[in-house]
Amino acid sequence: MDRLILLRHGDAERDSESGDDFDRRLSARGQTESARMGETLAELGLIPDLALVSGAARARETWAGLATSFPKARAQFEDGLYLAEAEVFRRAALAAGAETRCVLVIGHNPGLQELAIRLLMEASAGGALISRVQAGFPTAAAAVFLIDSAGRPHYDGLFFPRDRS
């Protein structure tokens, strides 16, 4: 893997019809911000080959909003990424990255935010960047890292949906 993109799902409705958190769908805002983040990443040439997507409805719908910007990307839906811890996201990305150049992971906080912070620290990113992610990793936010041949991350971008409005 040459590049890793961590993306939190878009804004979701407070409740689902079933009452199960797993089934919560995107709000209208979440649909819009997901599509816009896909456009932003694609415009910058940050195009995944593979998307690892939590099986939760809001993550699947986030991918649907992004997918139009990445027509050649494959998606792999994994229930094990639902509310996963940072290391689960990292292991999944590393496993997929063995055969893929650019991996996009769509998941949930707090695990995704924790992984972004860890990778920023490993990349020796500036304190302001780390503080910004520690303060919050909002819905449809993306953290991008180049991964060198030794598997070390290097900061490549941080995008919050409101940055583009």
What does this structure look like?
By secondary structure, this protein is of the alpha/beta class. It has one domain: Rossmann fold (3-Layer(aba) Sandwich), CATH 3.40.50.1240. The chain contains five helices and six strands. It has a six-stranded mixed beta sheet, with helices on both faces. Strand 2, helix 2 (57-67) and strand 3 form a beta-alpha-beta unit.
The strand count comes to 6
**Please, how many helices?**
5
In spatial order, strands of the major sheet run 3-2-4-1-5-6
Low-confidence stretches: none
Q: What is the top-level CATH class?
A: Alpha Beta
Helix-and-strand structural type: alpha/beta
Give helix % range.
Answer: 25-40%
- The H-and-E topology, N to C, reads as EHEHEHEHHEE
